[in-house]
Amino acid sequence: MKESEDILRKMLTETREIPVDHVPYAFEKRIMAHIEAAPQAAINLWQQWSQALWRAVVPCLAVMILVAVLDSPEAAAPQPQPAPSAPLTAQTQTTDEDLEAIVMLAIETPTLDR
Amino acid sequence: MGSPVEPVNNSAVAEPTDKELIAEVLSGQTASFEPLVVKYQPRVFAIARRYARRENEVEDIVQTVFLKAFSKLSSYKGTAPFEHWLMRTATYTCYDFLRKHQRNREWNATDLSDEENDWFENLGEESNAHTNQEAARALVDKLLDELKPEDRHIITLLELERKSIREIADLTGLSESNVKVKAHRAREKMRKSVDRLNPEKYL
Fold it and tell me: I need a surface site. Which of B2, B40, B185, B196 has the fewest CB within 10 A?
């Protein structure tokens, strides 16, 4: 046990002594290039968004026109329908009343003669 | 816009402090981040090399550390030195790397390279004899590979970076007693692994 503890300690000591802080040549330039590329990526995102919006304009217009075309006969058709129906009932009502008056007159006339 | 580059004080050679550079970066002068990278990259590389063996992995870790530091620079309060804040970011990034690249491989004496076998054979020689430090490092890596990421993190901080128990507790969010227990268990496991790896045991 003591032996393995000593071996481990020696291993760790030697590992610690290895210089590990060397930096690859111009590594900071690589970092800065990434950092400077980051805002560009943000701009590109906005560009992509606006491009997508522009691309959506044509299908949106097409859908809008299609809906307008399909909607227009539906909107025109129901309006004339109730208009004739109302006077028609009024007209039929008046004719019925006229007919009733004529019938009443016809019934009442013989009693006058008497 | 007026140029703020002209020195205001008398000492023309005085370098801007970390705080001044950070303030410039936060005000939009991205280029002011470069002196901070140049100043601290050796320390960040030293930390990263304790956790990753391949140089491309080390470079990726260091790059991640600085990109994180740049993007979260506004969260740096300035109460502690910037170096501490950056090293903490580096340590967290390295721990993330360990968790993502968890190996948990068990090594045996038959897996050792010639250099590693030689290292064990040369153990009995005088302390000033030439020893292959890279072989020692490779052996330590093998021992660390067998630990859980959290234990490896603690042992790396304690044995390789020579941090105190208190500092480790602060960095890991564990209590000091918990750090001590975990470090002791991890070291015990490493010691047993040394016994298993040591080819001299089987001669």
Answer: B2
> Does residue A33 belong to the interface with chain B, where contact is any CB pair within 8 Å?
no
In this prediction the pTM is 0.67
Per-residue pLDDT of chain B (203 residues), as tens digits, is: 444 444 445 545 678 889 999 999 998 889 999 999 999 999 999 999 999 989 999 999 999 999 999 999 988 988 889 999 999 999 999 999 999 887 767 787 788 888 888 888 887 665 544 558 888 999 999 999 899 999 999 999 999 999 999 999 998 889 999 999 999 999 999 999 998 888 766 55
Residue B198 near chain A (CB below 8 Å): yes
Between CA A27 and CA A33 the distance in angstroms is 10
- Residue B147: domain span: 105-203
Give me the helices (H) in chain B, please.
18-26, 33-51, 55-71, 82-100, 114-121, 133-145, 149-155, 165-172, 176-197
What is the ipTM score, two decimals?
0.79
Residues in chain A with CB shorter than 8 Å from the CB of B192 are: 4
Classify residue B1: in a domain, yes or no.
Answer: no
Q: Do A28 and B34 touch (CB under 8 A)?
A: yes
